[in-house]
Every structure is written in C-alpha cells, then in structure tokens.
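INTERNAL AUDIT FORM
Audit reference: QA-55
Scope: verify that the stored structure record matches its stored sequence.
Auditor: D.O.
Record contents follow.
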Amino acid sequence: MAALVKSETGFDEDFEAQEALARKALDLAHARRLPPTPRVFEVLYGYVRGEPEGLRNAVGALLERDESPALSAIERIYEEHLALGAAPVRLLSLGQTLDGEMGEVVERLARRETEDARFMGALTRIREGVNLLSRASTVREAAESLIEVTGAHAAQTSDLTSQLRAARRKIEDLSRDLKDLREAAYLDHLTQLPNRRRLDAVLEAEIAAAPERGPLCFALADIDRFKQLNDRYGHAVGDSVLKEFARILKLNLKGKDTPARFGGEEFAMVLPATNLMGARHIAEKIRQELAAKSFVVAETRERLGTVTVSVGVTQLREGEDAAALIKRADELLYKAKEAGRNRVASAA
C-alpha cells in the first residue's frame, strides 16, 4: 500500500501519485525542449495536476499555440500565478496580528487613563481630609495613605508602561515583517528588480499622472540570443548575465524611473517626465554599457564574448492605456531584433 503524505493544501495525497505527476511534468518539459529549472517544473507540475485553475488554463493555451514555448513565457506564467506563493495568507495573518496588537495598546492606554483618574481622585480625597487645624495623628494617617496610594499607582503605571513598551516593540517588528513581505511580493527574486506585478501597478499610476507630469516613455529590452547562451554555458551563467544587466539598469535609471523584470530575459523601463529623445538616450547608454562588458565563466575562465541587448522605446499617446503602450514597445523591440539586434528602435 502506498504511503500517504500531507500536502500544503491540507489533503492527504498518494505519494506514488505525486511522483507520477512529477515525472509527467519532467517528461513534458523534455518534450517541449524546456530546461527543467525549478520554475519550469513548478509551472508544469501545476499544469499536469490541474491546479490552480488559472495556471492550468494559461499553460494549456501556451502549449496549444507553441510547440516549443520560450522560457520567458513560462516564467511570465510563474510570476502571474505562483510568485506570491503563500504571501497572501501570510500578509493576512500579519495584518490580523498587527490589528490585534494595536487594539490591545488602545485598551492599555484606556486602562492607564482610568487608573490615572482614580489616582487623582484618591489624592483629592486625602488632601481634602487634611488642613491646618488637623490633629497630628490625622496628618500622619493622611501621609501614610498618600504614600500607599502613590506607591500602588506607581507600580500599576510601571506595569502598564512595560506592557506598552513590549507592545510597541512587537508592533514595530510586525510592521517591519509586513513591509518586507509586501516588498518581496513585488520583487523578482533573481534580479531584485520590481516584477511584472509591480510594473503593471507602476505603469497604470504613471499613465494616470502623465497629463500633469509631462511625457511618459516606456521601453522593453531583451537580451540577444539568450537561449543559445543558456544552452551553451548553463543557467547559472545565464542568471549572472541577467543580474548584471539588472545592475546596469539600476545604475542608469534614477528618481521616479522604474526598471523591472518583464519575464525571462525581457526587462522593462518606465520613464516618467521623459520625452522620446531622452528615453532613447537612456536606452542607448544602457545598450552600450552591456555591450562593453566582458563576461567570463568563473569555473573555466572561458570568455562568453559580447552580450548585447535590443530595445524598443516609445512614448505614451493621448488616451492610450497600458496594454497598448506595451504592445507598441514590443513591436519596436521586434523591429530592433529584425534589423540585426544590438540596437534601439524608437517611435512616438
């Protein structure tokens, strides 16, 4: 009888069935000439398993129209359907915990205010019981009561202060965790650039702000012959090239400019308050910097030769939405490739 294991979804699944699905996913990767990277495997495993439904439909449509899909297309599906992983549940849990801590702080502050009011009332009653004509014993009793009430209040206040300090530290930790998790959900793990999800949000916001801020440009860049580079030198070398190009993007984009990993070997640039000439100048500088780099395989010291990039740059038109802007940039990128690669194609 096959062993049973507990899945992340909470249901018991047959281990042999899981193994069969894994083999099926690997066979599918081989049949479609896809490298069995962790992301490719996770996407294809979800597809053969049939969940999540959105991923199943996306992969099914891709395989139907493309016998040998590009790695970038698989990675785009990963970003859209799997990149967040358990982040939504974790975000919700952190948010609920943070709300609970904030509620307790409010209760403690209210309790402290109540205790302060009681203390002031006790002081007033003691004071009203003593005057210049009071007997010595009365004054002594009043003084003892004052010391007792003050000591008790100080102890309560100290305890509440300690609790508030502890709660403050916990809230700061939770807030930091929440911030880190939110940022991680919008970052590409390899290049540490904003991912496609973040890019879409930024682009929508910049399009809305463009009428006030001025011209908005958008660019798509694609590393030339990246698949051949991966096939010949391996994915570790390919990853190094991607990270280096991401570094070049970060160095050349400043202020409100946003570089992002669009998917696979494709990158995007959102350039607010920048006209087409300025955007082309930035893209050309990035292209030249990558072409000037000398890549060497660390283990063998073999030189990769020149690694180049093609870029399509365009400027937002009046009334245009994000999808149309991206489409035009993609068409210009294709023209740059058709014209011989290692160049920038631009048009308003």
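Auditor finding: record pair retrieved intact. The chain has three domains: 4-81, 87-185, 196-347.
Action required: none
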